[in-house]
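May I ask for a single protein's sequence together with how it folds?
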Amino acid sequence: MKQPTALEQKVTALVEPLLPEYNAALVSISVRTGGKGHVQVLVEDADPAKNIPLDTCTAISRSISAQLDVEDIIPGRYELEVSSAGVERPLTKMEDFERFSGRQGKIKLFAPIDGKKTFEGLVGGTEDGYVILNIGGTPVHFDPEAISNAHLTLSDTEWKKLFKQNENQ
């Protein structure tokens, strides 16, 4: 899986200690510099069964912004975005593949295998240091170093259920 840059590691070290105060956990950090810089921080509630409220994301954003201003580790101007990881959250750690085993997922590779770079199926956990994606009932093992991006996807049934919940609110 994509390794964080040195700058992303610095931002992670600054952000992670701030999150317990908000009962939040870090999902991922992405930093783009140059031109219009962008810092994206994806968070989730520390209790995986709960959604993180918008006002909590706002409070976390203010806290991170203040710390970034003090530490001044991002060169130039940048935009800070703090948001929920969402229903199609990224899978950034080996533990994510275990936690979300049985859910729909998509993996994109840096280089193609048999002419294909994108694979979809059921997340099947990990085994012997490999990520497993069950594609059409067959477990396919991927080297985490070959994965450029991985995230959950929603099945048609899950999308319908989600829309039905939103209509009832």
